[in-house]
């Protein structure tokens, strides 16, 4: 079976990092780990070709070559997914679809021949069996969650690794919390399922053997879902693995209670973690209660963030406006919070209700649901009737974005962060790519850019006050260029 594994294109969003990637000559931030994992589960005798449309395009000769296309994606890739599915159909290529987009909204895709939904570990074997017998059904789904200790390592060799800024690896799926708007518990369950430390070490060995020395993203929903195993098994194994190796730094996603465990943070930093994405959502206690974000309540969130930064982990934050409890003061309060906390990469979005969440069901019951979400909660749209007048909400949202991503406030925030941040211990070797990126940023941001005064101000400030953090300061300046482009281009 000649099979294309297709990952649709992301629109130009906050997380695409498209404008920043140009500085380091990369095409995409992360490889499609779902498809690489799926590839490892397909019969050995199949011939596979990965096409990540964020890196390259699907040509007519690819379509002529293929018997089957297996398409993945999330809601934000919906438009590109639709286009490529139509092209496959026109070319007579059978389409099999799976992954979060289709698991949440398969009814919307008439042209797909077979849906293999939920986790492929459970739904792919019956599909392959029926296919071999010539009687494949249209839909394969399950309400069970798989045992990921049996998940094979991703088939890295399918990806053109040099085109990506980061690699990805997955240790756990699921999250013990239950935030009303979040898809994770519906898709992956409440009980975090974990791989064995040996599996992770084997995956890292494979990447290291393929000469990967850059960033690796642990794409867990909540990395600290099982703290006991982390402290006793995984982190000691990572610390031991790192000995004698250069490069490779990790980032991940975790809940704010990470700040309550000094030992855990210390071990994460020793293991090579330098950045963590945290769902802060809102400084408003009423809105936190509304969305059941219990772990963020009754704590000083600015202080929480600073504790994590001081431990040696950069905090990236997710923020949301548009909760029923939000009043017009929320916009300024979000701005103040973000500036004070020194969260440089602050992903602020309008609340959207993903299908399958408790929020989606509540809004449906209340007669406020307007359809599926766009999947990009930074595009200024939402899929339900908001309590606050929508124009006011969108104007407030725009005010936040323009404020926090104006060069003046963005560069100020970098300094606030660098003052707090404990420099990482990992030795990241400088390579030609980072040196070239540095020259490019000097030209684009330091000469051509309107932010040139802030750029050089940051450069000299960091050189004198935190010289070891200069590469990070430049990287953040480059991210800012991307964020500014994206936030200015949004119509919200
Ligand atoms: C890494 C990640 C990202 C990366 C994407 C990198 C990349 N190129 O893949 C980044 C950081 C860019 C990202 C961004 C966003 N993400 Co995201 N992300 C994840 C995360 C944490 C891990 C994805 C992953 O690699 N998983 C590991 C692989 C092994 O699992 P998988 O992809 O699900 O694949 C399995 C199955 O789904 C299935 N499968 C997958 N594809 C296919 C295809 C076929 C044919 C078959 C048969 C099976 C199959 O088999 C695999 C093995 O079981 C998931 C959560 C999660 N636990 O998956 C959220 C998740 C995918 N993201 C989500 C969201 C909402 C977003 C954002 C919209 C967030 C935001 N607010 O902006 C943005 C969208 C992008 C944007 N705005 O530009 C949602 C998607 C919901 C949906 N219905 O689409 C998820 C599920 C998290 C959540 N909150 O629910 N994300
Ligand atoms: S803590 Fe994060 S991953 Fe867990 S349910 Fe809440 S939003 Fe989802």
Question: Which features characterize this protein?
Answer:
binds cobalamin, 492 residues, six-stranded parallel sheet, 43% helix, binds iron/sulfur cluster, alpha/beta
- State the low-pLDDT regions, or none: none
Q: Got a strand count?
A: 14
Could you give a short account of the major beta sheet? 6 strands, parallel
Strand order, biggest sheet?
A: 2-1-3-4-5-6
Estimated helix fraction: 40-55%
**Bulk shape:** globular
Radius of gyration: 22 Å
The number of helical elements comes to 19
Query: What oligomeric state do the depicted chains represent?
Result: single chain
- The N- to C-terminal Cα distance equals 45 Å
Strand-residue proportion: 5-15%
Mean pLDDT: 94
Bound compounds, each kind once, are:
cobalamin, iron/sulfur cluster
The SS-based structural class is: alpha/beta
Write the layout of secondary structure elements.
Layout: E1 2-7, H1 18-21, H2 33-41, E2 47-52, H3 60-65, E3 68-71, H4 78-90, E4 94-97, H5 100-105, E5 114-116, H6 120-132, E6 139-140, E7 166-169, E8 172-173, H7 184-188, E9 193-194, H8 197-209, E10 215-218, H9 227-242, E11 249-254, H10 262-271, E12 273-281, H11 285-290, H12 301-311, E13 314-321, H13 330-341, E14 346-350, H14 358-365, H15 390-404, H16 407-420, H17 432-448, H18 452-465, H19 470-489
Parallel strand pairs: 1-2, 1-3, 3-4, 4-5, 5-6, 7-10, 10-11, 11-12, 12-13, 13-14
Antiparallel strand pairs: 8-9
Helix pairs in contact: 8-9, 9-10, 13-15, 13-16, 16-18, 16-19, 17-18, 17-19, 18-19
């Amino acid at each position: 079976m000649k099979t294309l594994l297709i990952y649709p294109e992301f629109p130009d969003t906050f997380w695409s990092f498209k404008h920043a990637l140009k500085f380091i000559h990369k095409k995409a931030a992360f490889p499609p780990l779902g498809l690489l994992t799926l590839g490892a589960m397909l019969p050995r005798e199949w011939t596979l070709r990965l096409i990540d449309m964020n890196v390259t395009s699907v040509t007519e000769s690819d379509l002529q070559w293929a018997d089957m296309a297996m398409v993945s994606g999330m809601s934000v890739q919906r438009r590109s997914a639709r286009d490529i599915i139509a092209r496959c159909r026109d070319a007579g290529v059978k389409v099999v679809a799976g992954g979060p987009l289709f698991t949440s909204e398969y009814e919307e895709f008439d042209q797909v021949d077979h849906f293999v939904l939920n986790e492929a570990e459970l739904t792919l074997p019956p599909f392959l069996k029926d296919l071999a017998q010539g009687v494949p059904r249209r839909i394969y789904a399950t309400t069970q969650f798989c045992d990921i200790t049996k998940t094979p390592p991703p088939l890295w060799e399918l990806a053109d690794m040099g085109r990506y800024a980061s690699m990805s690896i997955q240790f756990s799926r699921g999250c013990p919390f239950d935030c009303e708007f979040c898809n994770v518990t519906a898709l992956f369950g409440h009980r975090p399922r974990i791989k064995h430390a040996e599996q992770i070490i084997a995956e890292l060995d494979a990447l290291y053997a393929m000469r990967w020395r850059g960033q690796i993203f642990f794409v867990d929903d909540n990395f600290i879902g099982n703290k006991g195993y982390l402290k006793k098994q995984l982190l000691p194994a990572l610390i031991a693995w790192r000995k004698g190796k250069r490069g490779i730094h990790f980032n991940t996603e975790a809940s704010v209670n990470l700040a309550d465990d000094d030992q855990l943070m210390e071990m994460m930093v020793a293991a090579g973690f330098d950045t963590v994405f945290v769902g802060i959502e809102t400084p408003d206690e009423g809105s936190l209660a509304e969305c059941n974000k219990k772990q963020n309540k009754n704590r000083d969130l600015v202080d929480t963030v600073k504790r994590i930064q001081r431990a040696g982990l950069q905090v990236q934050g997710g923020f949301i406006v548009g909760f029923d409890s939000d009043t017009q003061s929320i916009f300024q309060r979000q701005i103040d919070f973000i500036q004070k906390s020194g969260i440089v990469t602050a992903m602020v979005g309008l609340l959207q209700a993903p299908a399958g969440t408790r929020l989606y069901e509540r809004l449906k019951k209340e007669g406020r649901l307007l359809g599926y979400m766009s999947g990009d909660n930074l595009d200024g749209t939402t899929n339900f009737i908001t309590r606050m007048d929508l124009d006011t909400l969108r104007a407030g949202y725009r005010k936040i974005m323009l404020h926090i991503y104006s060069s003046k406030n963005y560069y100020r925030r970098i300094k606030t962060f660098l003052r707090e941040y404990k420099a990482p211990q990992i030795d990241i070797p400088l390579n030609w790519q980072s040196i070239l990126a540095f020259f490019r940023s000097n030209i684009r941001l330091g000469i051509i850019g309107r932010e040139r005064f802030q750029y050089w101000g940051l450069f000299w400030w960091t050189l004198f006050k935190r010289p070891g953090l200069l590469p990070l300061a430049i990287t953040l300046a480059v991210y800012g260029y991307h964020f500014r482009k994206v936030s200015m281009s949004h119509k919200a």
